[in-house]
Amino acid sequence: MMALVDQDSAQVRFPPPLVVLGLLLLGLAAEPAFGLPGIDVAALRPIGLVVGALGAAILASGLFGFFRAGNDPEPWKKDTALVTSGLYRFSRNPMYLGMVLVQLGIALFAQSIGGLVSVPLAVLLIDRFVIAREEPHLIATFGEEYRAYCARVRRWI
User: Above 90 in pLDDT, residue 31?
Assistant: First the structure.
């Protein structure tokens, strides 16, 4: 029997920014707690700044697209419009991509192995527990329009 999808929300249980931030903080704290060595490569600091700034710009652009369409970016709220313009032409999830790039930028700037390990964990958790809940909701809400969008635009990049 197929489960019914709640069209009022994606039923996401936790805020994605807290997942990213929490994992980053755990990763940064893991180094002193477990005696992990840092990465002593001075070039990582400016690279981290660039990656973090790029991530913040992508996140801001994604938020702007949502606000312009009248949507609330909180994934547990109902979407009123399917956003397919701006960065959404290239990624179905530019806000999550931006968050993870900010996380990566901070980990690089901090020259932190634990911080770097936290990045793929955040991608995995957001992909499996946020996006995997959002997509059935979006199909139920927008139907064929969303399916066609998925066929032409990748989930992340």
Answer: no
